[in-house]
Fold each of these.
Amino acid sequence: MAPQPFLNNSLVPWSDLDIPSGANSFCNICRWAGESFDSPPHSEGSHCPSCGSIARERFLHWSWIRSWVPVEGARVIENSPRLGEGYRTMMSRALHYRGSDYDERAHQADIQLDLQDIDLPTSSLDVVLSTHVLEHVPNTGRALRELHRVLAPGGVVVLQVPLAEPTTKPPDSPEFHADDTPVFWRFGFDLADQLSDAGFVVETQVTERLTRAVASGAWPPAGEPADGPIDPATQAIVRSGRGRVLTGVMTDEEARLLGVGPDHMFVTWVATVTPDSKRLHRTAPSRVRGACRRIPKWLRRSIQAVLP
Ligand SMILES: [Zn+2]
């Protein structure tokens, strides 16, 4: 029988991380610690030998646990969870956890959801975990407004997409991911603006090393060794972060232990629904949103702050 690492410990996802001293590699999802991961560093790599998690999933959990005050029984939906039964059992111990999917050919989830038209009541969720799904949704704005609607005040969406362009654009030619799903958008750091337009308060979380690279305008950061050749497209993405508020949430040593690298592949947007933005959307969504589109963003934020 295959090992079921999650079933043998009582830890919930947000427990204090107890990294054993002397461990060279550590999985913050199942708490495995050992010498090395099963595959080379990459957002889709650094496979945990115990639970099978990959590096971007560990970065997602790291961001989530850091950003959200846990509530027992919180209503959590994860879009297209890649990890299987043991992971879902762990998540279900303290949370009302369900996996969702739109195209059920690639994954088997608990419920089917179209992010552009979510078949759930307003304010019915506390957390949405969404990793590498939004690029497969045609209408980003509509999906983000729907996520804002179904989250309760104080709720968060913890969102990852591949960081693929300096500025968000559709692919130049038809693009498909490994599970045959079409890619509609190649996102940049400016996804934060779309989240903000949908009503969220947004934090763009990256590794500390990536914040240094963005500040120095190139990868690797000034004075630090490269961990491999970097193509011009990646350099353009790193430069596009200049002038943005990026929050470094993982030290170099933590990134090394968790197999998170190369750093420019990792970004998590933690987008929070505030009571104020919830009230705004409830009051007169079409009138307010229509009016807000015609005024500068700095003024829009001020208006949103004072509207009932
Ligand atoms: Zn693991």
Amino acid sequence: MTYDFEFFDTPLSRERGDSIKWTQFGPDVVPLWIADMDFRSCQEITEALTRRAQEGCFGYSRDSRAAIDAMVAYHREHYGWEIDPDWVVPQPGVVTSLNLFCKLLHEMRPERSDVFINEPVYHHFMSAAVLQHVRERKVSLSMHGAPLPDVSKLDGRGAGGWMLCNPQNPLGHLWDAKELRQILDFAEAHGLLVASDEIHGGLVLDEPYTYLPLMTQARSDAERNRLMAFVAPSKTWNVPGLGCAFAIVPDPVLREHFTRNYDQLIPPINLFGWIGAEAAYRFGEPWRLGMLAYLRRNRALLQKAVADWGLPLCDLRATYLAFLDCTSLLPALGTESPRDFFLRHGVAVHDGAIFGAPGWVRINIATQTALLRTALERMGNALAGLPR
Ligand SMILES: Cc1ncc(COP(=O)(O)O)c(C=O)c1O
């Protein structure tokens, strides 16, 4: 199979059926909101799933050592990250892991369970804190230029953890070694546990930027043991419907806590999740590289459009989720949010407010270029009609 532009140009029929992305707003709206791609899946993944489906055997399955080994080998080969398979706690999703991390802070550190969260960020960071009864300490990121504030000036007293999104959704930012070191030093100084959601790690759009797994930056075993990371094939290969993720927890006591919760509260990974994950990590690289090339083309189209509109866009280095500053439109929009305004003109984008940035919108560019072009035309026409 050749994963060229022609492959990714071929529309996938998602209008019918059960796609959240495609059924939410009806057929007249171009859906560029939830983080789900419109691309046909990697053929090798489809074949592995089909083979298993044809066997007709769907009983309880064991954790797949083959899938864990494939994930470990992939991270070693691509990022030089040595993950001991014993550190891996299978999870049905990364949001589960975010919740388990907050739950762990609440249960293991009741006196100091506050958690630092960089905002704006994927909204389930905040909801995990609320649901698991820990208090968020917001670290506001700058959305123009270097995002991280001077971390050493934060007050770490009474805090127990930090939740990082690496790469950052929705800024599309990749944390570099210096930024990660600042967070690690701060965590060390205040005895914080750090959880890093690295679900978008495989979606770095171009050189010279690279995804640095937080754990690879630890300078000692003691430092590493205060960290945990959440990885999954779901964003990179667009298999979130298969429900397979991995919490990587080197410290045995923290891992035992995670595992206990996993066994008692959370269902095991679905048989097809294991099979899809193994195929993605073992055979999915050509699809991933073709998909990234396609995303670069879409990003260029978007950048050109927003330059014409005169609106600032975050520098999209990783993920397929572009973050657009529409705050200058607010006076003209009155009480309507930019998201509602674009929806009224036939394009569904995500409202920045849910990530902590009102007046911004997040645009998912992982769709056919022709469809993105239609959406950008609609948005441009809508903007042209606004008094500015
Ligand atoms: C940063 C981040 N974490 C987690 C998730 C969702 O993970 P899961 O579907 O595995 O729970 C998303 C989905 O968009 C995300 O962007």
Amino acid sequence: MPQNPIQCNQTGCILYNSYGVWDDRKSCHVATTVYPTTEEELRLAVANANKNKLKVKVVSKFSHTIPKLACPTARNENSVLISTERYNSSIVVDVANLAVTVDAGVGLRPLIDRVEEEGLSLVAATYWEGVSIGGVVSTGAHGSSWWGKGGSIHDHVIGVRLIVPGNASEGFARVLDLKGDDPLLNAAGVSLGVLGVISKVTLSLERGFKRSITLNFTNDNGIEDEFMEHAKKYEFGDIQWYPRHMQRCIEKAAEATKNINAKRIMATSSIAYRKLIANGLKNSEVFTGYPVIGHQGKMQTSGQPEDSVVVDFNYYRADEASTPRLNEDVWEEVEQMAFFKYSGKPHWAKNRKLDFVGVQDKYPNFSKFVGAKNVVDPDNMFSSKWSDEVLLGQAGKVKEDGCALEGQCICSEDRHCSPGNGYFCRRGLVYKEARVCRYGSGSGSGSESRFESESESESG
Ligand SMILES: Cc1cc2nc3c(=O)[nH]c(=O)nc-3n(C[C@H](O)[C@H](O)[C@H](O)COP(=O)(O)OP(=O)(O)OC[C@H]3O[C@@H](n4cnc5c(N)ncnc54)[C@H](O)[C@@H]3O)c2cc1C
């Protein structure tokens, strides 16, 4: 079992995420943690925090989020963490109305199992079942589907009970029962924990159904032209692209020796293995051939019957923030192209800080969301350094030495990369506006980019 993400002693608590390291590698200190088991205890926790002017954040038993969303404050004083670890007992299925109402701390797997017992199916789910309903709804987490209501869990939310600060006559905390066309219901989905505490979530369901899965391993010729058709044609379509695949120990050696071939060989052997085991799919006891057909509850999200590790490789992160990654400029350029040239939207629970630059302009109702936050939480009890940076458009503007190596900023000077290791701030090769840390000699990153001028004026 992984260690509990909250570790407390006499002086206070430290909140970790499930990776053990936050995106900025700094610890999250909190004065105290409470573990409510009922909605009334949740309400009292908010009331107590409000009365005592404490900063508050909710965190689940799992704390899976990479950015520091769940950390109340940079310091531990005047803060409290509300854990939903023990608020996970109620799952009420309304068969007639095809709906289920759950406590926010309930994990995805117990929820799916309960719903399937009633002959119903939850349509959207993350690929990983070790998450809480409160957490996935708060961060816009998703599976994969363009069909019906969509592939994000919040697409299927039809009700939320939200606990927000109140005045003294209201007992310092209020429970809002959001449903129907209440505009706050819309805001409560993907609310990043800044509106208040989600107590209960009601999700719409479908009659139980099965999925038929076939994995097709091909080369990547024309992948950019095919994925739209793929998504339209298959209800739960998926594409996994392996330009290269890495195993960590060998990876470190490859970084140190700048050995690109070692990385390619690792990629090839990994894909061959995945083909052989059909990426873990089984017809009954073992994999005997495609298609693999099963109930939605068994196919929609992964869980292992024994201790196992599922690795969805994104990129290698060095032990030290100051250690550059071989060819990191390639991914940095792709990243900046995706987010700034093509205006991609970041995943609230996963992306690096630079990806949130300008995020306010990507959602037409962003200012309405901030407005709703200001109404229900006028004293910013549920806001934090991270949420202020992102919601107020300050993300990535403070630049420290080496900050671009881990995506805390976009480089505009060599010192934001690692000149000592031979990584300098350079313009993109294809997307010229990008600024990336590239291995090479000499200095001088070239002329200004939108990021450069913007950041330098802000950071001084
Ligand atoms: C192995 C792994 C696989 C993943 N797979 C996917 C995937 O397939 N698709 C995808 O989209 N994402 C995926 N994620 C990301 C994951 O869905 C998000 O990190 C999600 O937020 C995790 O939920 P959690 O219960 O751990 O939330 P936490 O990390 O505990 O909390 C997330 C945020 O929600 C807030 N919050 C939590 N509960 C409440 C509440 N009751 N009220 C108010 N705010 C609350 C917290 O304050 C925090 O801001 C994956 C993550 C991991 C580690």
